[in-house]
Design goal:
With 155 residues, this protein is an all-alpha fold. Helices cover 62% and strands 0% of the residues.
Amino acid sequence: MTTRKKYILTALGGVLFGIVLVLAAFYTSSATSTNESCAACHVHPEAETSWKQSKHYMNKSGVQTDCADCHLPPKGTASHYWEKVKFGLHDIWMYLTHDKEDFDFESKRTEEYAPNIVFNSSCKKCHTNLFPEDITDDGVAAHLYYEENEEKLGL
């Protein structure tokens, strides 16, 4: 076999391997982006219940926000995939090495902890109009607080 033929076969093999790798990554990313996939490792009892009772699930518009919509940066960005891998590995490690009965879930439901698990860029992607017509007084107060303190408090 000539050197040229070897080069072509090697290049074709590399392209084929690259295509398979990209397809596998896309499939893995899609399969691990469902709410069911999140719930497989997030075994704390309040997670699904509190989400289904929140405005992100039950609202007048009928729009339901999925776990990844808030807990990862917006899809299609490099930070989305980086955080997905980072959180995924952490969650798997916690699931395998810690007893869920010993975990303090309430400590993770505070305003101070929220920036660690919710991304401001994701909030802004959906919440483009902070003051819609039917917003409640509590909603106005919360959004004014956000606007005034976003940079100062790292919201």
